[in-house]
Amino acid sequence: MDISKLRAFLCVAKYRNFTKASEELFISQPALSKKISDFEKELGVTLMKRSNRSVELTPAGAALYTEAPTILSVIDGLTQRIQEISHHQDQQISIACSGVESDVLAYLLNAFQKAYPNIAVNLRWCAAPMVRQMISSNSVDLGFQLSMEATLERNVEYIPIIHDVLNVIVSRYHPLASAESVCLNDLSRERYIAIKSADKHLPYEYIMDYFRNRDISFQGGLSVVESLETLVLYVSAGIGVSALSSRARERYGNILRFVPLKDCILPVETDLVWNQDNTNPAKDTFVRFVRQQLPSPLTPDSPPLQ
Protein backbone atom coordinates (compact mmCIF):
# COMPACT_ATOMS: atom_id res chain seq x y z
CA MET A 1 0.00 0.00 0.00
CA ASP A 2 1.30 3.43 -1.04
CA ILE A 3 1.07 5.55 2.12
CA SER A 4 1.08 8.80 0.14
CA LYS A 5 -2.06 7.63 -1.69
CA LEU A 6 -3.69 6.75 1.63
CA ARG A 7 -2.95 10.23 2.97
CA ALA A 8 -4.38 11.76 -0.23
CA PHE A 9 -7.54 9.67 0.15
CA LEU A 10 -7.98 10.85 3.74
CA CYS A 11 -7.64 14.48 2.72
CA VAL A 12 -10.25 14.19 -0.03
CA ALA A 13 -12.57 12.24 2.28
CA LYS A 14 -12.20 14.92 4.96
CA TYR A 15 -13.31 17.75 2.66
CA ARG A 16 -15.45 15.66 0.28
CA ASN A 17 -13.91 17.97 -2.30
CA PHE A 18 -10.93 17.48 -4.64
CA THR A 19 -10.24 21.22 -5.01
CA LYS A 20 -9.83 21.86 -1.28
CA ALA A 21 -7.82 18.67 -0.84
CA SER A 22 -5.45 19.54 -3.69
CA GLU A 23 -4.84 22.97 -2.15
CA GLU A 24 -3.95 21.43 1.22
CA LEU A 25 -1.70 18.81 -0.36
CA PHE A 26 -0.04 21.31 -2.72
CA ILE A 27 -0.65 19.19 -5.84
CA SER A 28 -2.80 19.81 -8.89
CA GLN A 29 -6.34 18.53 -8.94
CA PRO A 30 -5.73 16.21 -11.94
CA ALA A 31 -2.69 14.73 -10.18
CA LEU A 32 -4.75 14.17 -7.03
CA SER A 33 -7.58 12.58 -9.01
CA LYS A 34 -5.09 10.19 -10.68
CA LYS A 35 -3.54 9.32 -7.30
CA ILE A 36 -6.97 8.35 -5.93
CA SER A 37 -7.79 6.34 -9.06
CA ASP A 38 -4.47 4.49 -8.84
CA PHE A 39 -5.14 3.79 -5.16
CA GLU A 40 -8.52 2.28 -5.97
CA LYS A 41 -6.95 0.10 -8.66
CA GLU A 42 -4.27 -1.00 -6.19
CA LEU A 43 -6.93 -2.03 -3.66
CA GLY A 44 -9.34 -3.40 -6.24
CA VAL A 45 -12.31 -1.44 -4.84
CA THR A 46 -14.14 1.81 -5.46
CA LEU A 47 -13.65 4.21 -2.58
CA MET A 48 -15.48 7.29 -3.82
CA LYS A 49 -18.40 8.22 -6.02
CA ARG A 50 -17.53 11.40 -7.85
CA SER A 51 -19.82 14.03 -9.34
CA ASN A 52 -19.33 17.58 -10.52
CA ARG A 53 -20.50 18.97 -7.21
CA SER A 54 -19.63 16.44 -4.52
CA VAL A 55 -17.71 13.36 -3.46
CA GLU A 56 -19.41 10.53 -1.61
CA LEU A 57 -17.68 7.64 0.10
CA THR A 58 -18.67 4.09 -0.76
CA PRO A 59 -19.08 1.61 2.13
CA ALA A 60 -15.51 0.48 1.49
CA GLY A 61 -14.34 4.09 1.46
CA ALA A 62 -16.18 4.87 4.68
CA ALA A 63 -14.59 1.84 6.39
CA LEU A 64 -11.12 2.89 5.24
CA TYR A 65 -11.72 6.48 6.35
CA THR A 66 -12.57 5.20 9.84
CA GLU A 67 -9.60 2.83 10.19
CA ALA A 68 -6.91 4.72 8.25
CA PRO A 69 -5.90 7.16 11.05
CA THR A 70 -5.03 4.20 13.28
CA ILE A 71 -3.01 2.63 10.47
CA LEU A 72 -1.11 5.85 9.85
CA SER A 73 -0.45 6.32 13.56
CA VAL A 74 1.15 2.88 13.76
CA ILE A 75 3.20 3.48 10.63
CA ASP A 76 4.35 6.91 11.81
CA GLY A 77 5.35 5.47 15.19
CA LEU A 78 7.26 2.64 13.55
CA THR A 79 9.00 5.06 11.20
CA GLN A 80 10.07 7.24 14.12
CA ARG A 81 11.33 4.20 16.04
CA ILE A 82 13.40 3.00 13.05
CA GLN A 83 14.85 6.46 12.57
CA GLU A 84 15.79 6.63 16.27
CA ILE A 85 17.57 3.28 16.05
CA SER A 86 19.41 4.42 12.93
CA HIS A 87 20.33 7.73 14.58
CA HIS A 88 21.79 5.93 17.60
CA GLN A 89 23.96 3.62 15.49
CA ASP A 90 27.44 3.32 17.02
CA GLN A 91 26.60 5.55 19.99
CA GLN A 92 27.67 4.61 23.50
CA ILE A 93 27.32 5.68 27.11
CA SER A 94 29.46 5.03 30.17
CA ILE A 95 27.95 4.60 33.64
CA ALA A 96 29.80 4.64 36.98
CA CYS A 97 28.43 2.25 39.61
CA SER A 98 29.29 1.90 43.28
CA GLY A 99 26.65 -0.57 44.49
CA VAL A 100 23.88 1.79 45.58
CA GLU A 101 22.03 1.06 42.33
CA SER A 102 22.31 -2.73 42.45
CA ASP A 103 18.59 -3.50 42.75
CA VAL A 104 17.56 -1.40 39.72
CA LEU A 105 20.57 -1.49 37.42
CA ALA A 106 19.95 -4.92 35.92
CA TYR A 107 16.32 -4.11 35.15
CA LEU A 108 17.08 -0.72 33.59
CA LEU A 109 19.98 -1.93 31.44
CA ASN A 110 18.18 -5.01 30.13
CA ALA A 111 15.16 -2.92 29.17
CA PHE A 112 17.33 -0.17 27.67
CA GLN A 113 19.35 -2.59 25.53
CA LYS A 114 16.13 -4.05 24.13
CA ALA A 115 14.80 -0.59 23.30
CA TYR A 116 18.11 0.80 21.97
CA PRO A 117 20.25 -2.15 20.80
CA ASN A 118 22.62 0.15 18.89
CA ILE A 119 23.71 2.13 21.95
CA ALA A 120 26.61 0.38 23.65
CA VAL A 121 26.69 0.58 27.46
CA ASN A 122 30.00 0.57 29.31
CA LEU A 123 29.97 0.08 33.09
CA ARG A 124 32.69 1.17 35.48
CA TRP A 125 32.72 -0.15 39.03
CA CYS A 126 34.32 2.15 41.59
CA ALA A 127 34.08 3.57 45.10
CA ALA A 128 31.52 6.30 45.78
CA PRO A 129 34.08 9.15 45.94
CA MET A 130 35.43 8.12 42.54
CA VAL A 131 31.92 8.34 41.05
CA ARG A 132 31.83 12.00 42.05
CA GLN A 133 35.22 12.65 40.46
CA MET A 134 34.35 10.92 37.19
CA ILE A 135 31.03 12.76 36.86
CA SER A 136 32.75 16.07 37.59
CA SER A 137 35.45 15.47 34.96
CA ASN A 138 33.06 13.93 32.40
CA SER A 139 35.11 10.74 32.47
CA VAL A 140 31.75 8.97 32.48
CA ASP A 141 28.38 10.09 31.19
CA LEU A 142 26.26 8.99 34.13
CA GLY A 143 26.60 7.67 37.64
CA PHE A 144 24.54 6.48 40.57
CA GLN A 145 25.01 8.27 43.89
CA LEU A 146 23.27 8.68 47.20
CA SER A 147 21.38 11.96 47.30
CA MET A 148 23.47 13.24 50.21
CA GLU A 149 26.43 13.12 47.80
CA ALA A 150 24.73 14.29 44.60
CA THR A 151 23.16 17.39 46.15
CA LEU A 152 26.57 18.68 47.26
CA GLU A 153 28.05 18.61 43.77
CA ARG A 154 28.20 21.62 41.47
CA ASN A 155 27.22 21.56 37.80
CA VAL A 156 25.32 18.30 38.08
CA GLU A 157 21.76 17.28 37.37
CA TYR A 158 20.05 14.28 38.86
CA ILE A 159 16.77 12.42 39.11
CA PRO A 160 15.69 10.35 42.14
CA ILE A 161 15.64 6.61 41.46
CA ILE A 162 15.01 5.13 44.91
CA HIS A 163 13.45 6.53 48.08
CA ASP A 164 14.27 4.21 50.96
CA VAL A 165 14.87 4.01 54.72
CA LEU A 166 17.55 2.30 56.75
CA ASN A 167 16.81 -0.92 58.63
CA VAL A 168 18.88 -2.43 61.41
CA ILE A 169 20.58 -5.61 60.20
CA VAL A 170 21.50 -8.44 62.56
CA SER A 171 22.58 -12.06 62.32
CA ARG A 172 19.86 -14.63 61.82
CA TYR A 173 20.82 -15.98 65.27
CA HIS A 174 20.80 -12.62 67.06
CA PRO A 175 18.20 -12.13 69.85
CA LEU A 176 16.70 -9.22 67.88
CA ALA A 177 16.28 -11.32 64.73
CA SER A 178 12.70 -12.23 65.66
CA ALA A 179 11.70 -8.68 66.63
CA GLU A 180 9.10 -6.90 64.46
CA SER A 181 10.87 -3.59 65.11
CA VAL A 182 13.52 -2.12 67.40
CA CYS A 183 14.34 1.18 69.09
CA LEU A 184 17.76 2.81 68.91
CA ASN A 185 18.20 2.17 72.63
CA ASP A 186 17.87 -1.55 71.94
CA LEU A 187 21.23 -1.30 70.17
CA SER A 188 23.13 0.47 72.94
CA ARG A 189 24.85 -2.70 74.16
CA GLU A 190 25.81 -3.83 70.68
CA ARG A 191 28.95 -3.48 68.63
CA TYR A 192 28.22 -1.36 65.57
CA ILE A 193 29.81 -2.15 62.18
CA ALA A 194 30.18 0.83 59.83
CA ILE A 195 31.53 1.28 56.31
CA LYS A 196 34.06 4.03 55.76
CA SER A 197 36.23 4.29 52.66
CA ALA A 198 39.73 5.73 52.67
CA ASP A 199 38.32 9.05 51.39
CA LYS A 200 35.67 11.09 53.13
CA HIS A 201 32.58 8.89 53.09
CA LEU A 202 29.35 10.84 53.44
CA PRO A 203 27.06 7.91 54.34
CA TYR A 204 29.34 7.11 57.27
CA GLU A 205 29.27 10.73 58.46
CA TYR A 206 25.50 10.86 57.94
CA ILE A 207 24.83 7.84 60.16
CA MET A 208 27.39 8.76 62.80
CA ASP A 209 26.00 12.32 63.05
CA TYR A 210 22.53 10.88 63.39
CA PHE A 211 23.62 8.73 66.32
CA ARG A 212 25.62 11.53 67.97
CA ASN A 213 22.72 13.99 67.73
CA ARG A 214 20.56 11.51 69.63
CA ASP A 215 23.22 10.62 72.23
CA ILE A 216 23.37 7.05 71.00
CA SER A 217 26.57 5.20 71.90
CA PHE A 218 27.50 1.56 71.48
CA GLN A 219 28.88 -0.14 74.56
CA GLY A 220 30.25 -2.94 72.39
CA GLY A 221 32.31 -0.43 70.44
CA LEU A 222 32.54 0.69 66.84
CA SER A 223 34.24 -1.30 64.07
CA VAL A 224 34.96 0.32 60.73
CA VAL A 225 35.28 -1.70 57.51
CA GLU A 226 35.94 -0.58 53.93
CA SER A 227 33.44 -2.64 51.92
CA LEU A 228 29.82 -3.74 52.00
CA GLU A 229 30.87 -7.37 51.61
CA THR A 230 33.00 -7.17 54.76
CA LEU A 231 30.17 -5.51 56.68
CA VAL A 232 27.75 -8.28 55.67
CA LEU A 233 30.32 -10.91 56.69
CA TYR A 234 30.78 -9.36 60.15
CA VAL A 235 27.06 -9.00 60.81
CA SER A 236 26.11 -12.45 59.50
CA ALA A 237 28.78 -13.94 61.77
CA GLY A 238 27.24 -12.23 64.79
CA ILE A 239 30.23 -9.93 65.41
CA GLY A 240 28.03 -6.82 65.47
CA VAL A 241 25.00 -5.03 64.06
CA SER A 242 24.67 -2.36 61.39
CA ALA A 243 22.17 -0.61 59.11
CA LEU A 244 21.32 -1.02 55.42
CA SER A 245 18.57 0.20 53.12
CA SER A 246 15.43 -1.87 53.41
CA ARG A 247 15.57 -2.77 49.70
CA ALA A 248 18.88 -4.57 50.31
CA ARG A 249 16.73 -7.29 51.87
CA GLU A 250 16.19 -8.67 48.36
CA ARG A 251 19.93 -9.31 48.10
CA TYR A 252 20.91 -10.24 51.65
CA GLY A 253 17.67 -11.37 53.25
CA ASN A 254 18.72 -15.00 53.17
CA ILE A 255 21.73 -14.43 55.46
CA LEU A 256 20.69 -11.37 57.49
CA ARG A 257 17.62 -10.18 59.35
CA PHE A 258 16.32 -6.69 58.47
CA VAL A 259 14.49 -5.06 61.37
CA PRO A 260 12.68 -1.69 61.00
CA LEU A 261 13.40 1.13 63.43
CA LYS A 262 10.19 2.22 65.17
CA ASP A 263 11.41 5.38 66.88
CA CYS A 264 13.20 7.04 63.97
CA ILE A 265 13.38 7.11 60.20
CA LEU A 266 16.70 7.40 58.40
CA PRO A 267 15.82 8.28 54.78
CA VAL A 268 18.14 7.21 51.98
CA GLU A 269 17.74 8.36 48.36
CA THR A 270 19.62 7.04 45.34
CA ASP A 271 19.94 9.34 42.30
CA LEU A 272 20.99 9.04 38.67
CA VAL A 273 23.53 11.84 38.19
CA TRP A 274 25.22 13.52 35.21
CA ASN A 275 27.32 16.59 34.49
CA GLN A 276 25.38 19.58 33.13
CA ASP A 277 28.10 20.09 30.53
CA ASN A 278 27.85 16.54 29.16
CA THR A 279 26.64 16.73 25.54
CA ASN A 280 26.51 13.03 24.68
CA PRO A 281 23.10 12.51 22.96
CA ALA A 282 23.06 8.87 24.07
CA LYS A 283 23.16 10.10 27.68
CA ASP A 284 20.03 12.17 27.01
CA THR A 285 18.36 9.11 25.52
CA PHE A 286 19.16 7.05 28.62
CA VAL A 287 17.87 9.76 30.97
CA ARG A 288 14.58 10.02 29.02
CA PHE A 289 14.28 6.24 29.09
CA VAL A 290 14.78 6.09 32.87
CA ARG A 291 12.17 8.81 33.39
CA GLN A 292 9.70 6.73 31.35
CA GLN A 293 10.52 3.48 33.15
CA LEU A 294 10.52 5.04 36.64
CA PRO A 295 8.10 8.00 36.58
CA SER A 296 8.37 8.05 40.39
CA PRO A 297 11.16 6.76 42.66
CA LEU A 298 10.99 3.22 43.97
CA THR A 299 10.02 2.89 47.63
CA PRO A 300 10.11 0.01 50.13
CA ASP A 301 6.49 -0.72 49.15
CA SER A 302 7.14 -0.78 45.40
CA PRO A 303 6.58 -4.18 43.74
CA PRO A 304 9.65 -6.01 42.41
CA LEU A 305 10.83 -4.83 39.00
CA GLN A 306 10.08 -7.23 36.18
Low-confidence stretches: none
Beta-strand content estimate: 15-25%
Global morphology: elongated
CATH T-level fold name of the largest domain: D-Maltodextrin-Binding Protein, domain 2
Number of domains: 2
Helical proportion?
40-55%
User: How would you state the average pLDDT, rounded?
Assistant: 85
Separation of the first and last Cα atoms: 38 Å
Helix/strand class: alpha/beta
CATH class of the largest domain: Alpha Beta
Describe what this molecule looks like in 3D.
The protein has two domains: 3-87, Arc Repressor Mutant, subunit A (Orthogonal Bundle); 99-306, D-Maltodextrin-Binding Protein, domain 2 (3-Layer(aba) Sandwich). Helices cover 42% and strands 22% of the residues. It contains eleven helices and eleven strands. The protein has helices at 3-15, 18-25, 29-43, 59-87, 102-115, 128-136, 147-150, 202-213, 228-236, 249-252, 281-293, and strands at residues 48-50, 55-57, 91-97, 119-125, 142-146, 156-171, 192-195, 222-225, 242-245, 256-259, 267-275. The strands form three sheets. Strands 3, 4, 5, 6, 9, 10 and 11 form a seven-stranded mixed sheet that branches. The chain has a two-stranded antiparallel sheet with strand order 1-2. A two-stranded parallel ribbon has the order 7-8. A hairpin with a 4-residue loop joins strand 1 (48-50) and strand 2. Helix 1 (3-15) packs across helix 3 (29-43). The mean pLDDT is 85.
